[in-house]
Amino acid sequence: MFLTTQTNMENILVSSCLLGEACRWHGKAQKMSSFVKRFIENNPDANIVPVCPEVLGGLPIPRPPVKRWKGKVYETCSEKENRKNVTGKEVTDAFIRGAELTLEIAKSKQCKKGILCKWSPSCGETGITTKLLQEHGIDVINSF
User: Fold this and answer.
1) What is d(CA 6, CA 87) in angstroms, rounded to the nearest whole number?
2) Spatial contact of 103 and 128, defined as CB atoms under 8 Å apart
3) pLDDT digits (tens, 9 = 90+) for 117-131
C-alpha cells in the first residue's frame, strides 16, 4: 500500500499490524498506528516495507497467543487471566525463522530503520526480531 519503487527513498521496515493489517494473533485488524500515521505524514519520502515476522516464520492467522519462558516461546491460552501459564507447544523455531526472514528483507531493501510493534513477542523491545535487527545495525523504534 505504501511501498513504491523509487530508489532514492529511505526504506523503513514497519510491522504490518501497525499498518492495520489483520495479522495479529487473534486475526483482527487494528487501526493504523497513530505513530506510524504521523511518521508517514512527516516523512513523505519514506518507503514503507511491511513485515510480520510471525507470519513469515510460518505461524497462521489467527494463532494462539504466546509466552516467552526461559529463552523459548510457547503457545498459551487466549483467556488473558491465564496467559501467564504455558499451555501449548513450543514455537521458538517459527519466531527465529521469522526474525531471520525479516532480516533478509531488511537487508535486501537496505533498511536502516524499523518501526515494530511494542507488544509483540517478535517485535517488542526484547523480541527475537528486534534483537536480531539491532545486532545487524538496524535502528528499531517500538510503537503501538
Assistant:
1) 47
2) no
3) 998 889 999 999 999
Query: pTM for this structure?
Result: 0.89
Counted residue by residue, the chain has a size of: 144
| Residue 29 CA neighbour count, 13 Å, CB half | 7
CATH T-level topology, domain 10-143: Rossmann fold (3.40.50)
Annotate the chain with three-state secondary structure. CCCCCCCCCEEEEEEHHHHCCCCCCCCCCCCCCHHHHHHHHHCCCEEEEEECHHHHCCCCCCCCCEEEECCEEEECCCCHHHCCCCCCCECHHHHHHHHHHHHHHHHHCCCCEEEEECCCCCCCCCCHHHHHHHHCCCEEEEEC
Assess contact for 99 and 132: CB atoms under 8 A: yes
What would the pLDDT profile of 34-67 be if each residue is shown by its tens digit?
Answer: 999 999 999 999 999 999 999 999 999 999 999 8
Where are the domains positioned within the chain?
10-143
